Every structure is written in structure tokens, then in C-alpha cells.
Amino acid sequence: MLVETVNLNTVAATGQVSAVPRPAAAVGAGRRSAATPVPVSAPAAAVPPVARINGVPLHADAEVLPTEVLRQRACTELLRQAAMQDGLLDAADGAPTDGVVSEAASAAIDAWLERELRLPEPSVEACQRHHAAHPARYRTGEQVRVRHILFAVTPGMDVVALRNRAETCLLDVRCHDGRTGDSADTDAAGDAFARAARQLSNCPSGEQGGDLGWLKPGDCAPEFARELFGHVEVGVLPRLVHSRFGLHVVEVLQREGGVPQPFESVRGAVEMALRQQAWVTALRQCLQVLAGQAVVEGIDLDAADSPLLQ
Q1: Reported pTM
Q2: CA 7, CA 309: separation in Å to the nearest integer?
């Protein structure tokens, strides 16, 4: 399926809703004394309404999901309904409440997008301009030595609390960044980053202070690689890195820049990058049109880009 969830690129969610305990019943019957205070129940926590697209629910009743997940489901449902309306998907295909569409729906969405998104081929001039503007993207041999602290996202996790822990860790290690003497020695006694990795990281590399060694672009998930390669930053990155695995606090220890490649040797890669950009732009416009024609409840699709476009 063309539509894929990446990048936790930018993760925000509401917290878990817990039931408010009711006061215990009074012992004994009869009239309450005027001097006896009457217990007042605390108001029950509000449960967000079920988000819907044209009346089709995107999740189960009382289920609280991160806003980013809801947007992803909303966009997928818009495309599923469009494919069904155009006869590419049987009307009997059931709408998912867990965010996972059927194989038939996935194929129908792909077919619908292929038919609707007519993309022009990038010109040679546009490719040359793109190559000249982004030389770091088309280097060979670039590698970075990295360590990280992973805060993994798992089903049912309170994502807001997870983000708060990750941001607290990021602030702490940035305050100590550069105070360990030799940055290549990740086992230094006073190394706050290595200590935090051992205590907090959900990655096996935590036992080695978070050290991932030398990485090339193909060694890691694309959304992780985008934050590492084609940049000049060295040290603890000033932002959390989002990936399909969770939230990362990342430190770049060393960089080797690689060798720039002439346009003709990477022309195919440049053309592919421009096609992808055009596809994302066309998909965004398409989703905006579909959302404008639909009855959207419980989710604001204009608040941010959908994860489908990340």
C-alpha cells in the first residue's frame, strides 16, 4: 500500500482517561443532620467524542488515541470511501475501527490514487536545480558515529508521559553536553549521556551507553537517517528525533562528509526525489478536497499535515 505511517516525524496525544471514584455510601439510613456535610461527587472526566468520517467511526467508544493517529485514520478512511464511491471497492467492505484496512481496501486505495494523481515528469532543468540546491543529499561515503537513547512507543502507552520523559532526558544531557572531555570515550565516568542510556533506553545499545557505532544512510530507518545525514551538527541534537520505533535523544559524535557526486551520476535518484515530492503535494491537495466534501467529526484535519504525508 502506498500509504504508510513514518515518522513519528512530529508525535502528540491526549492522556489516558481514568474513572473518577464515587464516594462510598453513607452508613445507616435516616435523615442526615444539618451539621453533617453532604459529600459532593467530583465531575467525571470527559471522554472525547468518537471521531467519524461521513458517520463512519475511526475508533471504538471511549478509546483515546493520539491526535496524529486519528489524523492518519481519517485520511485513510477518506481514501477508502473515495475508492468505494468510484466502484473500486465493494460496498460490503467493512470499515475498520482499529486503523487496519482490508487487503481489498488497500489495493483499491492504491488503484484510486494511481488513477487520480496524474504527475508530470520532472524536467532536466528542475533536476539540475534540485541537485545544485541539495549537494549533501547526493554524496557517497557519508557516515556518522552516533549514540542514542530510545523511548519506545508500545501499544496502550501514554504518549504524552513518554514525550515528557524524553524531553526531560534531552534537557539533562544537553546541559552536560561537551563536559566529558574526550567525546569518543562513551564510557567516561562522568558521561551523563551514557549513564542516561544505560538507565532509560529501550534499545539494547543502552548497555553500551547508547553507542550505535558508525552508520551510513542505508543502515537505519529513512526517517531516522534524514535527521542524521546531510547536516553539519555535532553533539547532542537540540530536538527529539521521531521514528517508527519511538522518540530518540541523539548525539552525533563524529562525521565523515563523503564525496559529492556529479549530476549525471545521480540523475536517477534526483528524478525519483522530485517525483516523490510531486506525489506528496498531489496527495495533500487530494485529501484537502476529499475532507472539504466530507462530514468530519471529532478531528481537525487542518491543524497539521497528516502522517500519511510524512
Answers
A1: 0.57
A2: 10
